[in-house]
Amino acid sequence: MKRILVGFFTCLALSLVQARSEDSEWLADVPTALAKAKESKKLVLLDFTGSDWCPPCKALHSKVFTSSAFKEYAKEKLVLVEVDFPNSKPQTPALKSKNAALAKKFQIDSYPTVILLDSEGKELGRVGGYGGQDAKAYIAKLDALKKK
What we know:
Layout: H1 2-24, E1 26-27, H2 30-40, E2 43-49, H3 55-65, H4 68-77, E3 78-84, H5 93-105, E4 113-117, E5 123-128, H6 135-147
Parallel strand pairs: 1-3, 2-3
Antiparallel strand pairs: 2-4, 4-5
């Protein structure tokens, strides 16, 4: 029975990761994202989130990140990285450790926090929290960060 449950939760976790990656090609590894950004001349968006417990994080995902406007914008201009701190979703110890190190490096103290990096890893700016903007308004915020 224990093997069946472990297998079930492993499949569920992989399905969730796969669904998120198909959604807008979200990565979980910053070095890979930076290399991809450098190659494609894009910026890196880090989404520090509590995907399964944080109401503003869930709203940002459903109202902005899954919208067709954001997906098109991201496809042209961004490499997306989810840095997740879930309560119930399974994560490997390595991913938990990597995410904790990123949160410390970027001094994350609330969720969601979205950080825009250039392809060298330099922070261009950040958006803390989510106030309910639609995708178009959120994209405008991201564009403003690029111009700073």
